[in-house]
Amino acid sequence: MHVAVIGAGSWGTALAQVAARNGHDVSLWARRESVAQGINEQHRNPDYLSDADLSERITASADLETVVRGCDAIISVTPSKFVRQTAESLAACGISCTTPIVVCTKGVEGETGKVPVQIFEELLGNAGRLAALSGPNHAEEIVMGVPAGTVVASASPDTARFFQDLLGQPAFRVYTSDDVLGVEICAAFKNVIAIAVGVSYGLGYGDNTAAMIMTRGQAEMGRLVDAAGGNAMTCMGLAGTGDLIATCMSRHSRNRMFGEALARGVTVEEYEAERHMVVEGAQAARTIGTLATRYGVELPITDVVYEVVWGGLPLDRVAGLLASRSPKPEFY
Asked: Who contacts 17 (Cβ-Cβ below 8 Å, separation ≥6)?
């Protein structure tokens, strides 16, 4: 098939490689012409995963209409703050209402509380052809074929199986789910908890502290998923526990590394400017609050991350704020 991948960052590049390994012809949209040129001429992305030799089945362009023209499927991999813009641009290209689209962005829209698939449904219609993909999938490993698993969620079992077949291979096991909302909330939420874990290590705390933050963070995740109408069991799967472990503990995790930098006094603006990458957890700490308010869910770790990143809360007050909370049953 002809597969269009929207976004030539690390994750978009890795998923283009996965699709190409399965014998598909891949058109990759890059925001910068220099990136497209490097991929076409050198078969390497000059800005992201630049050590990886990319398949000759991958071609790139900075023109979106060229990339999606005649495609059989679309993989959208743009930062969360550009999801609405991406969907609007695809609508302007006249995408067929039946073209399958899998959205791999992790985040929540602050103004509306919508997750990426909901935004795509609003602007492009036909929820049955839409899917969300998420899991413990660091691009640095996926592009090299290191074994991993992921989950594709869709309201339509046929769409979920379509992308399972499109991307699944022995080194990239793809599982299906019908809990789109649960998978999408988990995808955004785990980045916030990874920042908290990074701050914890940056302040000199140990593995016990990190394990507590991860476990209580997962409890927050489960409460929000359940309140929003998702399946709390999704939080125990690849999009929840799996991605939480990878994002909180991996040396590849930009959200954990940002947390460590935050403990040294680095701001989100400074970090993103240095790394040329969006810290999705920093945005999610702000936007998840929209859902928490809507459903009346208590998210103490998320609230503290928000206050540290965006509210200027001094780090020496963080431990005291969390430790002073009244004891509760573990599950409530």
From this structure: 52, 54, 55, 58, 142, 143
d(CA 165, CA 160): 9
Amino acid at 310: W
Query: Per-residue pLDDT tens for 39-96?
Result: 999 999 999 999 999 999 999 999 999 999 999 999 999 999 999 999 999 999 999 9
Catalytic site residues?
190
Which of 32, 22, 24, 33 has its CA nearest to residue 4? 24
Residue whose token pair is 């499109």:
166
Q: Would strands 130-134 and 58-61 be described as parallel, antiparallel, or unpaired?
A: unpaired
Kindly report the length of the chain: 332
- How is 8-76 classified by DSSP, letter by letter? -SHHHHHHHHHHHHTT-EEEEE-SSHHHHHHHHHHSS-SSSSTTSPPPTTEEEES-HHHHHTT-SEEEE
Q: Provide the CA 63 distance to its chain's centre, in angstroms.
A: 24
Residues 2-20 have pLDDT tens digits of 999 999 999 999 999 999 9
- At residue 132, φ and ψ (nearest 5 deg) are -120, 140
Say which residues have a Cβ less than 8 Å from residue 211's Cβ, sequence separation at least 6: none
pLDDT of res. 153: 98
End-to-end CA distance of the chain: 48
Candidates 79, 138, 77, 137; CA nearest to 108 is 79
d(CA 260, CA 279): 13
DSSP H/E element including 148: strand 148-153
